[in-house]
Amino acid sequence: MELVVDVARPVVAVGECMLELSHLTASGERRLGAGWCLGLGGDTYNTAVYLSRSGLPVRYLSVLGVDPYSAEMLAIWRAEGLDTGLVLRHPGRLPGLYAIHTDGNGERSFTYWRSHSAARALFDLPEAGRALRAAEAAGLLYLSGITLSLFDAERRRRLVDLAGRVRARGGAVAFDPNYRVAGWDDAATARAAIGEIAPLVSIALPTADDEERLFGAASADQVIDRWQRYGAGEVVVKRGAAGCRFGSGSQRFDVPAAEVPQVIDTTGAGDAFNAGYLAARVGGAGARAAARAAAHQAAQVIQHHGAIVPRTR
Questions:
Q1: CB 123 within 8 A of CB 172
Q2: N or C: which end of the chain has fewer CB within 10 A?
Q3: Where are the beta strands (DSSP E) in the chain?
């Protein structure tokens, strides 16, 4: 299946970037009491950064405060090559904050302080309408279930409307359901919200574990079938160390995960996978080659602490 995206039109990613806290020792080992390491992270932001590093023009639609941390975050975004023209500023709110805990296998869990973060106030700002109109010009719109969870039902509908306008103008919509229990009142609300935007999704990038938590146990093919019933043209089910399964029409195939010597931290692995896949597809690669590129990018991330691999140059 050929994915046609006008590369002259930008990718627009919508969501929240937060301050990221982690514990590091001098050797890179995480342990309580070793001191805090402050970084940045957020699912759509992580993907936006890796898309930008691949050479694609990427605009990030979000909200920051007017505090010193927000100013530093904005500078980092620009240094990563992101177009910040759609980033709004809220005079009375701060960025969200989360802390990472990793177990002995590199699997991560999160604690959040974000209930009144600036990003949640996107639709309360008078500039939101202008930003949304500008976002309609996206060649590829990227958002996630976490993006949806920031807002109530009325405000989520504005994101659904944005996706519809992008599609109407010939753009594509990529969506990672990225279900986080803490972000929703209950699973039924999350299912309803995802179901509302799902018919507008061109490329679905679900994770098998998330789908099971939301919809119950299902095979990768059953997940693909569900997203195809919604209308997605192609579906890539991420299965961690088991690799991924691709589906488009009647075509199905598996791509293994890339081998790594040691898993350090799985934070951001799925976000990096999404970026690797989308960048390859937008660049003209076939789905199988794109899935391999995605697996390789995810493998790089899980060998480092945090969601964003430091630049090598």
A1: no
A2: C
A3: 11-14, 18-23, 36-41, 58-64, 87-89, 97-102, 108-113, 140-144, 172-176, 203-204, 234-238, 244-248, 251-255
Catalytic residue selected from 43, 176, 210, 271: 271
Whether the CB-CB separation of 59 and 11 falls below 8 Å is answered with yes
Beta bridge partners of 143: 175
Is 306 domain-assigned? Answer: no
d(C-alpha 169, C-alpha 107), whole Å: 40
Maximum Cα–Cα distance for the chain, whole Å?
Answer: 53
Query: Over the stretch 109-161, which tens digit does the pLDDT of each residue have?
Result: 778 899 999 999 999 999 999 999 999 999 999 999 999 999 999 999 999 99
Question: pLDDT tens digits, residue range 45-77?
Answer: 999 999 999 999 999 999 999 999 999 999 999
| Residue whose structure tokens are 């982690």 | 22
CA distances from 144 to 36, 190, 292 (A): 28, 11, 22
Q: Looking at residue 154, which CATH number applies to its domain?
A: 3.40.1190.20
Domain membership flag for residue 233: yes
Helix (H, G, I), strand (E, B) or coil at 128: helix
271 part of the active site? yes
The proportion of the chain whose per-residue pLDDT surpasses 90, expressed as a percent, equals 81
What is the extent of the structural domain holding 161?
A: 11-17+42-87+126-301
DSSP state of 302: T
Give, rounded to a whole angstrom, the gap between the first and last alpha carbons of the chain. 35
Query: How many residues does the structure list for the chain?
Result: 313
Structural domain total, the chain: 1
CA dist 132 and 166 (Å) reads: 10
**32, part of any domain:** no
The SS3 call for residue 96 is coil
